[in-house]
Specification:
By secondary structure, this protein is α+β, with helices and mostly antiparallel strands. 16% of the residues lie in helices and 42% in strands. A hairpin with a 6-residue loop joins strand 8 and strand 9. The radius of gyration is 16 Å and the shape is globular. The N and C termini lie far apart (35 Å).
């Protein structure tokens, strides 16, 4: 990882070369639903790693509806599981996505924590609200300038290839939009039979 110097200021963006594209990281403060008290089985979670609000995040980006669809389809067709990590550390894979999709609010992930002690520690930190941010690593496949309703300009991410998502401590957010109400609305759409 490296810190990029841009126009005389340091940014918190991380870039790693991959397949001819930069891999980037987005951080979001979130409210998690975890375990039986939230209508899920113990060790499961439901989160929005990204939302489609039309306000620039800390990096000047907005994400377009549909930006994740191709990546979700590719993960499903591959049979692989999108990994859930702690702090973007590939040595700390703590679980994965069992189901993903997009709705009007954003890209949602229903997932699980692994059973090993390190993963259960992260699960307990999330459940205890000591880890309340979520971040994801991605490559940009399509982007462009867009004018927002308030007249400001933003970089719109139109198509992204997601590589992983990570649980982080509070204060790492590029986009602070995500609330319990939105997460609950997704959880409530799933019946007990649909929750794996």
């Amino acid at each position: 990882k490296q810190i990029e110097e841009k126009k005389g200021r340091l940014t918190g963006r991380f870039f790693v070369a991959r397949k001819g594209a930069d891999m980037r990281v987005k951080n979001v403060n979130v409210s998690f639903k975890t375990g039986p008290e939230d209508g899920l089985e113990d060790g499961q979670f439901m989160v929005y790693p990204s939302t489609f609000i039309r306000q620039r995040d800390a990096y000047g980006d907005v994400i377009a509806k549909g930006a994740f669809l191709d990546s979700i389809k590719a993960w499903e067709e591959s049979g692989d599981v999108l990994p859930a990590m702690y702090m973007h550390d590939p040595n700390q894979i703590v679980g994965g996505a069992s189901e993903m999709g997009e709705d009007e609010h954003g890209w949602w992930v229903k997932g699980f924590f692994d059973d090993d002690p390190a993963s259960q520690r992260i699960y307990n930190l999330v459940k205890g609200r000591r880890l309340t941010s979520l971040s994801f690593a991605f490559s940009v496949l399509d982007e462009g300038r867009v004018k927002l309703e308030d007249g400001s300009q933003a970089n719109e991410l139109r198509k992204v290839d997601v590589h992983e998502f990570s649980f982080l401590p509070k204060g790492f957010a590029a986009n602070e939009d995500t609330s319990v109400v939105e997460v609950k609305s997704v959880v409530d759409r799933f019946t007990a039979e649909e929750i794996v």
